[in-house]
């Protein structure tokens, strides 16, 4: 069989979407330009090209030029580089045949002429092959020249001779020649000259003198085709062909120099006087004329003209060749077209490599023919032989094919959508165009539109799935009320069939052929359609055999068995053949436990295969099989045909090509994918025919070689999933997806999985070599047994999984036996699909097979090594479990990772370092909230560092997940302190109001373990943190309630201890002391204080909305500026009235809350001792003035009043806290004593007040203040100064109120004020009381300083000196305890 070519197509919108091409709008220099509407053609979509050509340039490769939108847009696409396409939008439609030429290595010139007479020259950059026209352009890159000779160019035919010359054929037969005298630059435009030439003939000269018969009045003189020698050339001659079949030769200087009338048919009688005039051609501009150089050294010039014969039943026309070497037109001969061209329409023809290539339009598709043509040796044309090239067998979605699809399981929408999205069937542009037409048709229906029609979708595929069938609804029968499901499904099917019919119609228009072009290098001849690009490639043997069998052509003798099997398939029909295919698929998807002979016999019997054939057909098949000499040999030849490839030697690149960077074109990748798809579909059809023959011979298979049957069964699944990969689209969304997005429908091209695989392999050279190398590298058809999986099959399944096609990989793995390599890929695929349980179960079962001692065959071992992570076997199960745990962790499967870590620990060798494994195990349990398992693992781990690091993580996660009960119930024996530290750290450094409440958790933890002191300390610290929080007025009540709760819990915890042990130690931020001791009374006092504040706020909620007074200025933590004068003016007038109103009426005067020492002083000025003391309590060291003021009031009252009693019986029954101190106001004296214990005291009113003040002092003084005597010293100083003169105070402060070493404070204070005798009396009294000697160390020291004050008291001095010496000796022996609590 002779080698035949095939057309391999690819859609332009699949690899060059229109949305990726930026558009540049051009302007015109013409004023008041009326934009005529572009030519409307109902069959031509705006995005379909009306003109196309491919130009080959040495430094940039192949460039595709297309004219779109009725001539308004010119698009440039680079087929050899990765430069994005570009579009130029003109103000008016352009004439056909624009051209792009290379002016230099750095520039491309695009020459375009519009129908209004504007000549555009676009100078585009071409220095960078990766950017091309997207690079920086020159300033004056767009230049326009207005043609002056002709006003109307609407029917002109343009021929670009070069960058310096353009020729336009006019409708009156004239020829306009435009030549450039100067090409512009960055600052100036081009300079053009115009020459208008008329056709010269005797008839033309004669009619020029007759009015009404001037040139142009005869429509037959209209020029239909203009041609010149292909560029580059120095010959500037032009050839034209007009409607009256006159071929003319034009020169630049003389105009028309020769003409020749082409007869309708070349015969002997054509030159007789009685010959009729030829019929004029149709008024359609066509490629009817081509000029080529030929002869010796290409010195001759030949014109080839085509004459169509639409009425001829034998051919579509003929070619006539003319020699025009000496500016004459001499006819040389005629070439008849083939019989295959009948009823075809010529689109273009060229001469390439000594072959005349012709492009025909045949029923809307491309068909090419070629025949040898040597222009240098034109002797005879009688024995012209044509070879035809068509597209391969393509599925057509006819109604019969759609009915066949519905027989398979699945929904109607899913099946039809998968058929529409099959790669290569419909272009993305066709699908989108059909969808737009469908939506417009639905919107034109009466009534409100369906919501699916007006919604926006992410992709066109989602839009199709949602819109098609949206107008069909399920209705009830008006008579019976039953749901009419049959009518619904019928209407839905018709709706989908109508949409598919629209897609077929648009695709038919997209496949209309336009031009023949010459590719670069080995690309050969290229066919350009409106929306597709085709190359003419050589058929491989499976495609050739398949075409011969499909067209009932003869095949070679060694394919006789295949011819018999093909005949059998034709006899049994498609339905039975589909049943054979389905049963074989079902068998191969199961574990083969029987011999192939038994399986085939059983399936043939179940199918009743022999009963489906009539007797004559059976006898015919048997008779033809008996004529076969060696059936076994012919079967193996068929298997070699299915799995064989054409071995080709790789083309050696020259040195220049090796230096250039490798380029990969998406167009070439798409062509290789299309060729692979055609080839594997042909191989699969051959394999199906062979399986049908085996079913027919099921009873005789016992005599066959078992290995041959195994090869047949191994070849079938490989031949099946190869076309499955070609038919599966990459990234196809689920058909049932009805997701609606606010974005516009995105124009998403679809490509097959094979396209992606070829793009990764880099095989995109000439065809069929690149396609065969890809099939050979993948090894899809090289298996010899159904029980084995080759390394190529395992690798391609793993590659599909990695590329993001899990569904396709799963379908392919279902065909393969469960070898270790297949199992490993399957487990990873299950992980990607979310089936982690199945994956881990499978890996645990076959773990022993992944080592060197697994007993694997060489093929299984090689396949397994190709997909393992490190390309090496595991030394032990321990290494395998570790790697599997790492794999599971990388996929976020913590639960299964933990199970493999546990397995790794169970088989870990003694010398292995398992610390990291314990980390992963414990932390994995924590991450999956398995608290008890994590606790058990912490107890079981032998590493202390792992325990310490894991406890805090476990505690924090349990708190965050709310497992508090379980946390406090766990023992944590041996490392409870780590739990204490972890919870205490969070309690100190987190917000006490934020969940989880670590303070409460820690309190519960301590309480469960009986550590009530730590529990009380935790709640006390929480209360103090709540007090320090900066809050909003609306949060005051909730914060104070939480604070009260904390105090109450702390009190309860301390109450569980013995009274002498009911104290806690808390850190204190004071320079001299690092900690503070808080007892039960202190907690109750603070609880009482907060409770009183909360009660006050609840009684008067206006306090929450009152203006806030700033913090005091001397606050070290929050320094700020305080306007003291304004605050005093705001507070002083109502401070006393507010307290008095609270006492008498129970109603408070609204006032802003005050803070710090400022509020203390303001209350003191209003003589409100209790408020001052209460306000100063939260601020350390600010109650000095309060106690000094109180003592001064008592002292002044002692001077003014006698010690008379006051009837205060009306105050009985009042209940106030110890902080409520009596308030003494100015005259008349008002005394308020709010404690029932005071009412029973005897003596005068002043004595009662003094005793009450001292008692308040003992209540309010803190530990450190008590040590330093800060409040008592302030009170004593106030008393001393109140005497008027130094040393003459009228009142004394009892020494007994000073404790421990603090007795030094009053003595020093008395000495500073000159009260020497008082000090001396204290000392002498102390000396007499020997029981108090150890407590007078401070007092003795103070007496040393009396020597220079009291010189006359020598005796006292001596006594004191001796006592001091004795005291120093005692100090070395004894330790004085200053703190009564210690």
Describe this structure in words.
The chain has 1382 residues and is an alpha+beta fold. The protein has 46 helices and 31 strands. The strands form 8 sheets. It has a 5-stranded mixed beta sheet, with no helix packed on it. Strands 1-29-28-27 form a 4-stranded antiparallel beta sheet. The chain has a 4-stranded antiparallel beta sheet with strand order 7-8-9-10, with no helix packed on it. Helix 20 (806-813) runs antiparallel to helix 21 (820-832). The radius of gyration is 53 Å and the shape is extended.
User: Given the structure, what is the number of helices?
Assistant: 46
Shape: extended
Structural class: alpha+beta
Q: Give the strand content.
A: 5-15%
Strand order of the largest sheet: 2-6-5-4-3
Largest sheet: 5 strands, mixed
Q: Which regions contain 5 or more consecutive residues with pLDDT less than 50?
A: 202-209, 211-217, 266-276, 649-663, 732-747, 1107-1156, 1177-1181, 1200-1246, 1284-1296, 1330-1364, 1370-1382
Short description:
The protein has 1382 residues and is α+β, with helices and mostly antiparallel strands. Helix 20 runs antiparallel to helix 21 (820-832) and helix 45 runs antiparallel to helix 46. The protein is built from 46 helices and 31 strands.
